[in-house]
Design brief:
The structure is a single chain. It is built from nine helices and 25 strands. The N and C termini lie far apart (about 60 Å). Among the domains are: about 140 residues, D-Amino Acid Oxidase, Chain A, domain 2 (2-Layer Sandwich), CATH 3.30.9; about 100 residues, Rieske [2Fe-2S] iron-sulphur domain (Rieske Iron-sulfur Protein). It is α+β, with helices and mostly antiparallel strands and about 525 residues long. Helix content is about 25%, strand content about 30%. The strands form four sheets. Strands 3, 4, 5, 6, 11, 12, 13, 14 and 15 form a nine-stranded mixed beta sheet that branches. The chain is globular.
């Protein structure tokens, strides 16, 4: 499934396609999403040599599956941030988010990137009177942290009835992949390299550091791990984050929708905006129906619910794109950005929640300052080693209980099928074959693809995702293809493949013996 962003532009072409052997870079960055490209651009401007490594192409990961709301409105809400970090900490979160918006605008101006950047208002709205109190509470928190322009409004400019809304001016939107490629073109060359189709398997901290890839070693004085879910830390960081799938459609509609970023207060919530596209059309982009990764087999149902919700509220004529993405939720409401725990020269950033554009940019700003040994006013707030469980103990327990439960339950529960013949075409099932539990997919031609169900990160058993035909881990969000290849970390090793071709051949019938 292609997003509207990747589906509407051509591929990025690197200037140098040779693997940089026997070179020492100042910084190696793993991941070519918004965090990695922002950090690389700022470091290159400061005179550092940078290598950006990506397992596929520029922005082909989660940054290419965003809905690209550029906003200082934080998913967890400022009222929760005040309870977790105090009023001063929440104010700093707001100031840093605003600085990230300004950094995006500055990059676009400096590099002349044509990505349809536009300043727009934002609205959080409710469709019933019961949720008005929630808006009033958030409005009070916004005023306390310095968003003085926020105000409560009776009407929201949407073509369906709303009860009330919270208006915040001066947010922004753009075509994200056009922005990323503008950054990538400025980064690539003159001592800096973008190295695509190169899978980073391991990071060794040292002086210098080394990144082990499937094409060879890349060395750097510092390493920034800026993948959606960090692969450089095996367990500790993953107790503080949780992975969710989110679903998006982009459609044409007959109404003229006012410019703006819109979120409702429903559960699950929905988020909406319009976007001018390179072919001169305007698309309505709607996301929502989030659920924890690996916890839902019938993911087609999520797309169907999203489309039904959309058609009930907008006059949609054609759904041109639909896709899903991975959202990493931090336990206390703010991302983790900084030196990787127990490391000297390895840094990471994760846990952007639904604020990938602003927090991803902010991560690039903070980490480039760390590398350049420049003071950053917000680095302590986002410190990757922080533990604030006391402010979010319920969330911490709820998000971490799945690991031991799944690890134990999936090994003792009965398989989904007892015969490979019971697996329909286009479906995956957990089956037991010769006393071994396997994850088995049957393709449209009837051929079976079998892999070990044990996630190579920490051993939980994967579950089938119908819409994307993938095997997803419910514990820490790793995702694998039907042949076991890694689609999304933190896992870095493929699932073990198993040959079951002999099992799908008809069994020979026993010969009859004479009486």
């Amino acid at each position: 499934m292609q997003s509207a962003w990747t589906g509407s532009v051509g591929p990025f072409r690197t200037k140098n396609r040779h693997f940089p052997r026997n070179r020492l870079f100042d910084v190696v960055i793993i991941g070519s999403g918004i965090s990695g490209l922002t950090a690389a651009w700022l470091l290159k401007k400061a005179g550092r040599t940078v290598a950006v490594v990506d397992k596929a192409s520029v922005a082909s990961g989660e940054s290419g599956h965003t809905t690209a709301h550029i906003t200082e409105l934080i998913d967890s809400g400022y009222h929760k941030l005040i309870s977790h970090f105090g009023e001063n900490g929440a104010r700093m979160a707001r100031e840093s988010s605003r600085a990230a918006i300004d950094q995006i605008a500055a990059n676009i101006d400096e590099l002349g990137i044509d990505c349809y950047f536009r300043r727009v208002p934002a609205y959080i709205y409710c469709e019933s009177s019961k949720q008005r109190q929630e808006l009033e509470r958030e409005l009070d928190a916004m005023h306390r942290v310095g968003i003085k322009s926020a105000k409560l409004v009776r009407e929201v400019p949407l073509p369906f009835r709303t009860f009330a809304g919270l208006l915040v001016p001066d947010q922004a939107q753009f075509h994200p992949v056009l922005y990323y490629r503008g950054l990538a073109e400025a980064i690539d060359g003159h001592g800096c390299s973008i190295i695509e189709n190169t899978f980073a398997r391991d990071v060794s901290d040292g002086n210098p550091c080394s990144v082990d890839t499937d094409r060879g070693e890349i060395r750097g004085k510092r390493v920034l791990v800026l993948t959606d879910s960090p692969m450089s830390t095996r367990f500790l960081m993953h107790t503080k984050i949780a992975s969710y799938r989110t679903y998006v459609l982009a459609a044409t509609c007959t109404e003229s929708i006012a410019p703006g970023l819109f979120w409702d207060t429903a559960d699950p919530y929905h988020y909406t905006r319009t976007q001018e596209m390179p072919d001169a059309t305007s698309l309505l982009v709607i996301g929502g129906e989030d659920h924890k990764t690996g916890m839902k087999r019938d993911t087609n149902d999520s797309f169907e619910k999203l489309e039904r919700w959309s058609r009930e509220r907008f006059s949609i004529t054609d759904v041109r794109y639909h896709w899903s993405g991975q959202v990493v939720e931090p336990v206390d409401g703010l991302p983790f950005i900084g030196r990787s725990p127990l490391s000297r020269n390895v840094y990471l950033a994760t846990g952007y929640s639904g604020n990938g554009m602003t927090f991803g940019t902010l991560a690039g700003m903070i980490l480039s300052d760390e590398v350049l040994e420049q003071k950053n006013s917000w680095s302590a707030l986002y410190d990757a080693s922080r533990v604030k469980v006391f402010g979010s103990v319920t969330t911490y327990v709820n998000e971490n209980k799945d690991y031991p439960l799944c690890l134990f339950r999936d090994r003792i529960s009965p398989p989904e099928v007892t015969s490979l013949e019971d697996i329909p075409a286009g479906e995956g099932r957990i089956a037991k074959v010769n006393e071994e539990r396997l994850a088995v997919f049957r393709d449209a031609r009837g051929e079976l693809h079998a892999v070990s169900p044990a996630c190579t990160h920490l051993g939980c058993h994967v579950r089938f995702n119908e819409a994307e035909e993938s095997w997803d881990c419910p514990c820490h969000g790793s995702r694998f293809g039907i042949n076991g290849e890694v689609l999304h970390g933190p896992a870095v090793s493929a699932l073990r493949t198993v040959d079951v071709s002999a099992e799908q051949r008809p069994k020979a019938k026993p010969k009859k013996t004479a009486a």
